[in-house]
Amino acid sequence: MRVGLYDDPIFREHDAGPGHPERPERLDAFRRGLREAGLEAGLTPLSVRPATPDELLRVHTPRHVAQIEATEGQNRRLDPDTAASPRSHAAALRAAGAVVDAVDRVLGGELDRALCAVRPPGHHATADRAMGFCLFNNVAVGAAHALARGLERVAVVDFDVHHGNGTQDIFWRDPRVLYVSSHQYPYYPGTGAVDEVGEGEGRGFTVNLPMPAGLGDTDYARAYREVVEPIARAFDPQLVLVSAGFDAHAKDPLAGMAVTREGFALLADVCVGLADGAAKGRVVAVFEGGYDLDGIAESAGALAGRLLETPARKGVDPATPHRHLPALLEAWREAQKPFWRG
Ligand SMILES: [Zn+2]
Predict the structure, then answer these.
(1) Which of 52, 183, 206, 248 counts the most CB atoms within 10 A of its CB?
(2) Is this prediction's pTM over 0.90?
């Protein structure tokens, strides 16, 4: 299995401000996780190039691209949680460019899969706005690039503990992109209710699994196996992109989920499994959130380990589910029933 690894020193030069949880050490933790899992040698390191204006403009407005460009060399606050430092623009261009390059190499057959260890993260950035630590929407730029290359069905699976409002917004009316998100709810950024399903031609192609705090490996496994898998299989994506945030980890200081290393391995298995059909195994995973350094290291190791092999389908952990899980499964399925018949 040829799995590309995108990382670059520039990603550590984006400084979100003193004491900010989205800090450069997160990437060192990511790399430590790969090393400790003994996986670094098995990954193919690739150099990172900046996204071009045309690539960004597929998902962002000219005003937004210009606004981020104008931060070059400056310290600027973009929203209450989001700041740019002198090198942030350069880092953000390369974070998006890494995903575009990964999509190119995976679709070109040079790689089977790719892992983009990038900062700043992307899934909160909307077409017109930086927010939630995100400047450009890296995964959306990658999905739009795959569409521009002629793909008709791209799945974006987002297991970051926050709802990827930016990705949802960008593809809200687009039936070519199936956006699936599991997230703590209600919680930042406030979107991601179960009845947010897309609009117009895109109706049914946004799938939200809002979750109360406290869900663990078993709950996530069942949510993804019993709700996400059947829908994604019916959609039959030609490429699977993953917004891989590790802030649902039990140790994460920002959120309240209880996912462990095993849970992230299982989520990675599901994502790889969704690429079984038309996607021919093609998966590009993109780092999003995750704020506990050990949690990131464990989760990154688990994810990379599953990307490097074709995992055998493992049974769901028989641990006791969260008391609300049966009702949640029912509500998620009910919301999707009009669009995806089992
Ligand atoms: Zn997050």
Answers:
(1) 248
(2) yes
